[in-house]
Specification:
Structural class: mainly alpha
Mean pLDDT: 84
Low-confidence stretches: 1-6
Number of strands: 0
Number of helices: 11
Largest sheet: none
Order of helices and strands: HHHHHHHHHHH
Distance between the termini: 29 Å
Length: 282
């Protein structure tokens, strides 16, 4: 095969892989990108204020002027959902980053050192896993106080144990591989083998799990805000929007329906992307 034919064949394979990606995955990435864009640049999507209401426009049904209707104070619901992305997604990113860094560190130390270090760290992880995550988050919030930052901190601490268990299992699996034994046999030091061989081959599943936890963090933060422990009003946040509209379900169904749909869509998109990162399907 000539060089030109080989290059053409590689391009055909890449094109086939792109075209083979399922429509659901394209939709998941589109939803996630739109949510992230709304979080970083909400002004691109709306020109209304998320906190100031329009006199006489209370609880208007979805219409041309207000695509998703207005709330009990005359504020545009679409605008509040767009601006709420910044609160919900930034807190979720902070929570996942905290769980990823803290949990992965514990799991890698336990899996790499083994022995008493592993037993002590994993017993701590078992204790954390025995406590329901929502209960643990609420307990931390009660100690720290309410607010977006504290809610993200609480959700992040509650997710450390899950990351630690997964990271420890992956490190133990890779540590027993033949190529790791060969690296030790070639004179590689413990830290060199850990950094160059064990970690790169252990973190793929952890990163995929982080994408899954991103969706779970959004759900957890929305739940805390719904219960009144998260972002305080009038700052828009998806869980808070659902909570504010629950008293008007009979007369203004859109106040809870549309924020709920957004939360479900973003969580499902994160779950779908995590499956791709885990290598489950295209």
């Amino acid at each position: 095969m000539s060089l030109v034919d080989y290059s053409t064949a590689r391009k055909s394979i890449r094109t086939a892989r792109v075209l083979n990606i399922q429509p659901g995955l394209w939709l998941a990435w589109a939803v996630m990108l739109l949510a992230l864009l709304a979080a970083f640049a909400p002004g691109l999507f709306t020109h209304f204020s998320p906190t100031e209401g329009v006199p006489g426009a209370q609880r208007l049904a979805p219409q041309a002027a207000y695509w998703l209707g207005t709330d009990q104070l005359g504020r545009d619901l679409y605008t509040r959902i767009v601006y709420g992305a910044a609160q919900s997604l930034s807190a979720a990113v902070a929570a996942v980053a905290m769980g990823l860094i803290g949990g992965t560190t514990l799991g890698v130390l336990a899996g790499a050192f083994g022995g008493r270090t592993e037993n002590a760290l994993m017993r701590l992880v078992d204790v954390l896993l025995s406590i329901p995550s929502l209960l643990l988050s609420l307990s931390i919030l009660i100690l720290l106080g309410f607010g977006t930052v504290h809610a993200a901190l609480a959700v992040g601490i509650a997710s450390i144990a899950s990351f630690a268990r997964l990271a420890r299992g992956e490190v133990v699996r890779v540590r027993r591989s033949e190529f790791v034994e060969a690296a030790y046999g070639s004179g590689g030091s413990f830290w060199r083998v850990l950094w160059r061989h064990i970690l790169p081959n252990s973190l793929t599943a952890v990163i995929a799990f982080a994408a899954l936890q991103f969706g779970q963090a959004i759900l957890a933060l929305s739940t805390l805000s719904f219960l009144g422990y998260g972002t305080p009003p009038p700052t828009p946040e998806w869980g808070l929007l659902i909570a504010e509209g629950r008293n008007y379900l009979a007369t203004a169904w859109w106040l809870t329906t549309f924020p709920g749909i957004v939360v479900v869509a973003v969580v499902l998109a994160a779950n779908r992307i995590s499956r791709q990162l885990a290598g489950g399907d295209a």
